[in-house]
Amino acid sequence: MSGQIIGPGSLSLNQWTTRRWSVAEAVDGCVRHDLAAVGLWREKVAEQGLAESVKLVRAAGLRVSSLCRGGFLTAGGLPGEEGRRAYARALEDNRRAIDEAAELEAACLVMVVGGLPGVKPGEPAGDGPGGFSRDLAGARDRVAEAVAELAPYAGERGVKLALEPLHPIYCPDRAVLSTLGQALELSLPHPEEQVGVVVDTFHVWWDPRLFEDISRAGRRIASYQVCDYLHPLPEDVLLGRGMMGDGVIDFGPITRAVMAAGYTGDVEVEIFNAAVWAADPDEVVATMKSRYEDVVLATR
Amino acid sequence: MSGQIIGPGSLSLNQWTTRRWSVAEAVDGCVRHDLAAVGLWREKVAEQGLAESVKLVRAAGLRVSSLCRGGFLTAGGLPGEEGRRAYARALEDNRRAIDEAAELEAACLVMVVGGLPGVKPGEPAGDGPGGFSRDLAGARDRVAEAVAELAPYAGERGVKLALEPLHPIYCPDRAVLSTLGQALELSLPHPEEQVGVVVDTFHVWWDPRLFEDISRAGRRIASYQVCDYLHPLPEDVLLGRGMMGDGVIDFGPITRAVMAAGYTGDVEVEIFNAAVWAADPDEVVATMKSRYEDVVLATR
Fold it and tell me: Which residues does the UniProt record annotate as the domain Xylose isomerase-like TIM barrel (chains A, B) (predicted)?
């Protein structure tokens, strides 16, 4: 690993960073700020309409750096008929997500795989009528099975599933994939063009094996997402993602490692943060552009 | 690994679980509830007096399963004279902690190694006058140096340093040791009787390499601490530790793995939780005893 930057791809606006923007507004914003790529969310695409969204990004000449998101594959770990139905529903929803990613020619479909069966995002464990499962190993096995089920379907449509390890704080309710190494292991049984991994700085910055696993992941890296890790985290830990430079992450070494591993895709900025969402989206994009140069690429 | 339980040691009350109890009260409580061991905190020992604390635990016939805690070794990563002074102060304080552990004949001195230099526990990053450092790799190197400095001193006094990996949520401000595997690597250059590791269920339950690393750690496991991981975490994430059975952790497999690895020491219950601290300590100890049987050993 030379450490030489062989990329980078372009800066991409993940539309959740400017959450109040529709697909049309985000596309306009990217054009106005001279960005070559955008990361889209399924909810927003549904609001705009899939066909209209495709038309908008093509007319603007934008690449779709990712579609967020598929996943939530673990509910099938609940017992009996409830579990079987939940699993079937999840697979069906993921096939629709793959279809949408294909239409949008997205570089990948980001997969947030789901937490312990029955634990709903943000809700107390065990409050649901069906209770919840503490079988973490079982949930992880189920994710592997579901990925094996979905990968060929994705492959036939030219879509790459991008398995996203989430910070361990989200293990109970959002993702039993907790490290890059674990996501990488899960991807290896499948062709590189069908299953890759996401490196999101917020989720992986603390990992003592990060640089080794980035290097090992190589061309399996399907998406590089950046935002900072705020300290202390806000009460809603989902909103602890900050503008690059506002938190504790040293981006330079991570960016260089991702590029040295052979990643040439776009670099998406995805920020969940109440203050960022409340700000003028055009100002957010302007700040994002300057911080990208100063902090993420550390070229100035 | 046979999976057969070759331990377990006795249940031990970490005195922070019954936080309002002094050393004298905790010792009385252990005797009253028929416990054979207690985990002590330096602050509480200082309040009681070291000599008096030694006298109390000996008179009661209690083992001291751990002394909490040494560590906070990373401040030396700040630049210049400030950093050098902070490092020297930290080493000196840790030598005093080792002396105290020796007097108490504690089974180990638990080491919480410290976070990014200049980030204070619970305080916003960068608000201190000296700013803070984002050099995570450097902080980890500094911990390794400090452990190498302290291990022989501990060894001469018959004290074992127990390196505690903390959940990655505490990486910014409390411990740049984030996984059991990383703690184990750090321990390996030193004799087993000088440096071991802590397995605390709250901190490691999510780790995809947990069972492999417990097995690899073997006799390096110096302390097994248990409490549950609550979901969602409270606003002060430090207080997200719950009574076993109240959270998302499946204790049985972890307990069996720790015992199969050869651990024969005591099992400490260490809970930081506002509701537990507000409750009658005798009721807390009674609940702890029944949950230990039902949930941690899963023998009923």
Answer: 41-280
